Amino acid sequence: MKTIAILFSLCFTITTFAQDYKFGKISKEELQEKFNPLDSSAGATYLYKYRRTFFEYIQNEGFRLVTDIHERIKIYNQEGFGYATEQVSLYKNGSDKEDVSNIKAYTYNLVEGKIEDTKLTKEGIFKSERSKYFNETKFTMPNIKEGCVVEFRYKIMSPFYSNVDDFDFQYDIPVKKLEAVFEAPEYFVFKTSTKGFLSVIPKIETRGDKITFNSKTRSTNGSVSTSFHSSDVDFTKNISSYDLTNVPALKEEPYVNSINNYRSAMKYELSYTKFPRSTIKYYSTTWEDVVKTIYKSSYFGEELHKTSYFKDEIDAMIGSISDPVKRTALIFNFVKSKVKWNGGYGKYTNVGVKKAFKEHVGNVAEINLMLTSMLKYAGLTAYPVLVSTRQNGIPLFPTREGYNYVVSYVKFPEGNMLLDATSAYSTPNVLPFRTLNWQGRVIAEKGGSTLVDLYPKQKSKNNISLMVNLNEEGAIEGSFRSIKTNHMALSYRQKYNKADEEDFLEKLENKYNGMEISDFQVKNKNDLSKPAIESYKFNKESQADIIGDKIYFSPMFFLKTTENPFKLENREFPVDFGYPAATRYQIVIKIPDGYKVESAPEKAAFVMPDNLGVFKYNVSHSNNMIHFLIELQINQSIISPIYYDALKEYFKQIIEKENEQIVLTKV
User: Fold this and answer.
1) How far apart are the two ends of the chain, measured CA to CA in Å?
2) Strand 175-185 and strand 44-58: pairing?
3) Measured between alpha carbons, how far is 399 from 98 in angstroms, rounded to an integer?
4) Exposed (0-12), middle (13-18) or buried (19+): which is 170, by Cβ within 10 Å?
5) For 648, which of 391, 512, 525, 566 could close a Cys bridge (C-beta 3.0–4.6 Å)?
């Protein structure tokens, strides 16, 4: 990004007023600011963002991790109102849990030239249980208005000192000033890893510190007396400090699997601990360590070995079936119909596979670990696969927290198969879009692992047929038919089958700006062995321009692409389409009687470098009929940013071609 040059220039600032970041010291200038001088499109700006994470020793309890948060946010308009709500996610495991305390928050407004503050009350703080492993504390600032400033601070105490949240340095809105500190005693050795395209280098230093142990003794020689003693243990702590100014917003772009993958951040992963007079204890330093830890969990590996709850039903189902592919299909469809997904993510089970089977509902892990267990029981070579969903990011470094999903993997001599029984419309090797995120980690017994590509190789297809009658007034009527396969079919079924048909049709008509649809029909909406077929009749006015005795129109009518999704001058992120796709248009147009084709677009073909994309445009006409055949292919799920200019130009040429016009003239 071109803003890198100014990002870390600590002496440069475009603001003209002095900043005081002490809590409560809000200036009139901050309240009077109408927009961010470096990003006028921002609905809000972090005026100040502070985080300090450090270790605290509690006698008789041990070390705990403490994080202090202080944020000051300027809200310019209603688009920024969402930043007046803070959600704090708190991890828990058994009796151990994270807690938030010392919440202090104010909203500041400028009223008749004076600063007025509104305090957040206890009634405005809400605590809830999100899942078996997470609680949440949430608050929304009071008296939010355009131009206000909100400020809050709080403290998080955690017994899980091996889990240090990432230090993020880039957000969806700009940051004027960011300070962050991480302090760790010499007993804790962390390895660091960075992500994002902005280079962030901390200031490293060491300081001395001490732990004071207090004790008391009582003596009963004639009378009871108590004496108090204290002793100190000196140690060194390692400190990493970050001081950033004018950090640009990380803005969402089209076709990005997760913008968080490219957010500038520093991760601290506990490598090992070495306490005085103790041996070294290693944590998740390799993928082998991570996988073994997950597999040994009673909420993962043990669930794979439970079979008593399904044996009778599976035996009856596959007893006469010897073909392994048919066995797989039967079990896959059985699980999909037997247990419904409750929307819960996670690599670990929540209520367990037996209860999920009995109650016919479960989270991702319960459904797909159950599926894997059944496949193994049926004599198939099946394994669970750890997956990080698109929104969860890509686990580039060994970490137990990097995966939040499980699918099933079956090995056959003729090829491998990936299955996800959480989706009613998923088929073998056609996983839900949320799981199409680089690679999954296949977990073998005893904790070994290999990687498997989650992106499909087979194209998803959409064949569209359009029969159009054009009249002298520029209105059209005709028929539409679409035949979708693989991921395009899955996506369509998810949208259509869950919707009310009247609402679905209304949205479809609105999508095409008031087009009237009749005789709407969907075939194979639940028959996953066949393509999903959508058809309807339509009529739509004002689809051509009438100038004198000539008619001008685009042959793709309402189907033409009008806007290039790739607008940035440069792009540093890969373009992630999720799956390779091919769309084919066959368009037949009957022109009005008494007219002939004066001119029509020429044939064309565009090919991206390395055959990443192909576009073909063919036209022919005779008498009063015009025939178009248009093909558009994206042949890779992911396109590297080195091809961004070529991709941008490719779409530009497609849009220009699709918008070229046919000219009719009266005979």
Assistant:
1) 57
2) parallel
3) 20
4) buried
5) 566
pTM metric for this prediction: 0.83
Residues 556, 465: Cα–Cα separation, whole Å: 11
Burial class (CB in 10 A: 0-12, 13-18, 19+), 529: exposed
How high is the mean pLDDT in each 10-residue block of the chain (667 residues)?
38 49 95 96 97 94 95 98 96 92 97 96 94 90 97 97 92 97 96 86 94 77 72 93 95 86 90 90 80 89 95 95 96 97 94 97 98 97 95 79 92 94 97 95 85 95 98 96 98 96 94 93 97 97 94 94 90 93 97 95 96 96 93 96 96 95 94
H-run or E-run covering 364: helix 364-377
Six-digit token string for 53: 């994470």
If one counts every other C-beta atom within 10 angstroms of the C-beta of residue 591, the result is: 22
Identity of the residue numbered 375:
L
* DSSP letter assigned to residue 174: -
- Check if the beta carbon of residue 646 is closer than 8 Å to that of residue 639: no
Under a CB-based contact definition with an 8 Å cutoff, are residues 150 and 104 in contact?
Answer: no
213, 219, 237, 275, 369 from 233: Cα distances, Å:
8, 26, 13, 12, 48
Both structure tokens of 401: 């927290």
At residue 74, the 3 state secondary structure works out as: strand
Helix (H) or strand (E) holding 367: helix 364-377
Tokens of 396: 């580039």
Burial class (CB in 10 A: 0-12, 13-18, 19+), 241: middle
**What distance in Å separates the CA atoms of residue 95 and residue 102, rounded to the nearest whole number?**
22
Q: Are the C-beta atoms of 162 and 281 separated by less than 8 Å?
A: no
d(CA 40, CA 358): 56
**Residue 418 and residue 411: Cα distance in Å, rounded?**
9
In order, the DSSP letters of 454-508 are: -S-SSPEEEEEEEEEEE-TTS-EEEEEEEEE-HHHHHHHHHHHHTS-HHHHHHHH
Nearest 5 degrees, angle CA 469-CA 474-CA 475? 55
Give, in order, the Cα–Cα distances in Å from 318 to each of 92, 312, 407, 408, 426.
41, 10, 22, 19, 21
